[in-house]
Amino acid sequence: MTISKTAEEWEAELGQQLRDLRLRQNINQQQLAEQAGVALNAVKNLESGKGSTVSTMVKVLRALGRSDWLATLAPAVTVSPLQMLKSRKVRQRASRQRRPKT
């Protein structure tokens, strides 16, 4: 049985990953905020898991060079389940086999 994480747990985990990424790049929160064009408090809130806007997260990911993370959040849908239902072939019954006349 899989227990899913709460929204708060996801925010905290994402914040920790962003913090680790920032530290690996050897930049402080102020530098990241300036590079991303967001307020210092926005970076602090994002890293601490206290929430943020999607816009702030996108700007921070771009500044960290990890905008590729965004593509993994919502992969492009290639097949529409509704379209599959609409294009479904009508089911036919097998016809009774006829015996040749002798």
UniProtKB/TrEMBL annotation:
Descriptive protein name: Helix-turn-helix domain-containing protein
Domain named HTH cro/C1-type: residues: 18-70
Cited Pfam families: HTH_3
Matches recorded under Gene3D superfamilies: lambda repressor-like DNA-binding domains
Endpoints of the signal sequence: none
